[in-house]
Specification:
The protein contains twelve helices and three strands; from the N terminus they run H-E-E-H-H-E-H-H-H-H-H-H-H-H-H. Helix 4 crosses helix 7, helix 5 runs antiparallel to helix 6 and helix 7 packs antiparallel against helix 8. The chain is elongated.
Length: 271
């Protein structure tokens, strides 16, 4: 029995150190083999392997070609992910996004080429980002998000609407879609027509007056409770002042009456 236990223990150590595990795509059943130690950069795979050291297969909920990207990344890291840079370079004068990405990656030339190749197909970049998040491959997820940040942060403004188009498969931007082109033309025309001129100033003054009238209407409809309360307080204060003035007037009349106006009963009692 002791010998059997030693054999089982030795088998587990063999699986843990030198054995391979098969990663299988649930989508198209593509099978990729990778060393168990390399696969542990995924926290999900690591937990499965540590709970069952004799397991030889694990399914990934992603397409086969995305699984190949993940296995290539695992083989490059060899069980240890190198921390990704924390910040993108501040290089606004450089117009070449690929060059900016290279400066971000620095000496990590393999990672730079690997991620740029994936990112040329925007749909693949999206799927790889989802897989890295789902299977907890920390630094790979960081690289994917940094790639998105590079696209959005440094692409020319006129390309911002189409830089992440999922139909891009070779890194080249597609012709601008008609809807986007029309909306851009409308925005540009509106911006030019809104240049300051005496006529526009008059229009703005009129529109401001209308908005003020609308605000007053909202107060009386109860749509702006804070301003309505202020108005009620002002009215109440005015009413209080009016009541005080009325009291003063009554007192002045009371003490300024002629003696002839005093009733006879009051005079006799005074004597």
């Amino acid at each position: 029995k002791m010998g059997d236990l030693k054999e089982v223990k030795g088998l587990e150590e063999e699986f843990e150190s030198d054995g391979e595990i098969s990663l299988v795509s649930k989508v198209d059943r593509t099978r990729m083999n990778v060393k168990r130690e390399y696969a542990k950069i995924s926290n999900v795979v690591k937990v499965v392997i540590e709970q069952d050291k004799t397991s030889t297969e694990l399914e990934f909920d992603t397409a086969g070609h995305i699984l190949k990207h993940i296995v290539d990344y695992m083989n490059h890291c060899k069980g240890t992910e190198e921390p990704a840079p924390k910040e993108l370079p501040n290089l606004e004068k450089i117009n070449n996004i690929e060059r900016i990405w290279g400066l971000y990656c620095g000496k990590r030339t393999v990672i730079k080429d690997f991620m740029w190749k994936v990112a040329k197909n925007r749909r693949d970049l999206e799927l790889l980002t989802q897989a890295a998040d789902q299977y907890a491959i920390k630094e790979l997820l960081h690289y994917c998000l940094s790639m998105y940040a590079t696209f959005l942060g440094f692409c020319p403004l006129e390309d911002l609407d189409r830089i992440l188009d999922p139909n891009i498969v070779n890194g080249k931007l597609l012709p601008m879609r008609k809807k986007i082109s029309k909306s851009k033309s409308k925005r540009e025309a509106k911006r030019k027509s809104s240049a300051i001129s005496p006529r526009n100033k008059t229009k703005r003054a009129c529109s401001k007056k209308r908005s003020d009238n609308q605000t007053n209407a909202q107060i009386f409809r109860g749509e702006d409770s804070s301003r309505e309360i202020q108005l009620l307080l002002q009215l109440e204060a005015q009413g209080e002042r009016a009541r005080n003035l009325q009291r003063l007037n009554n007192n002045e009349r009371k003490y300024s009456r002629d003696p002839d106006d005093i009733p006879s009963s009051s005079r006799s009692s005074g004597k």
